[in-house]
Amino acid sequence: MFTGLYNIVYTEYPGEENELRFLYEAEWLHNTEVRPQIVCKKGRWQVTMVLVWAKNPLRFLCRLIDQYPTESKAIVHAELFKRTMQKDKRGTIKISENDFDICFN
């Protein structure tokens, strides 16, 4: 019954440099503004947190948090996640939509 149990081969090998590159590239996350995005999809309210870099607003990161049955629950949870995710607790880092400098002509 347990004959194949001990035939498992364990291999250990050192990791490569590029496997932890995301830790080095994550320095920009310290200077980001966290914005919640709440969208109704299929009758449920989906909360996505958008982290926007203050120096270059075109560099951002979107993280899906969860789905909620009501809009009020989604707003409450989005605010709680925003407070815990942002590194700037006072909220002094602000990004305006005019920073993108988009011309629609």
How would you explain this protein's 3D organization?
This protein has 105 residues and is an alpha+beta fold. It has a domain at 32-88. The chain contains two helices and three strands. The chain has helices at 21-24, 71-85, and strands at residues 32-41, 44-53, 60-68. It has a three-stranded antiparallel sheet, with helices on one face. A hairpin with a 6-residue loop joins strand 2 (44-53) and strand 3. The longest helix has 15 residues, at 71-85. The chain is extended, with a radius of gyration of 21 Å. 8% of the residues are buried. The model has no long low-confidence stretch (mean pLDDT 80).
Q: What's the total number of strands?
A: 3
Low-pLDDT regions: none
Task: Look at the helices and sheets and give the structural class.
Answer: alpha+beta
The overall pLDDT average reads 80
Q: How do the strands line up in the largest sheet?
A: 1-2-3
Q: What fraction strand?
A: 25-35%
Proportion in helices: 10-25%
- What is the global morphology? extended
Could you spell the SSE succession in H and E letters? HEEEH
Give the N-to-C terminal Cα separation.
73 Å
Main sheet: strands, sense, barrel: 3 strands, antiparallel
How large is the count of helical segments? 2
Task: Set down the secondary structure blueprint.
Layout: H1 21-24, E1 32-41, E2 44-53, E3 60-68, H2 71-85
Antiparallel strand pairs: 1-2, 2-3
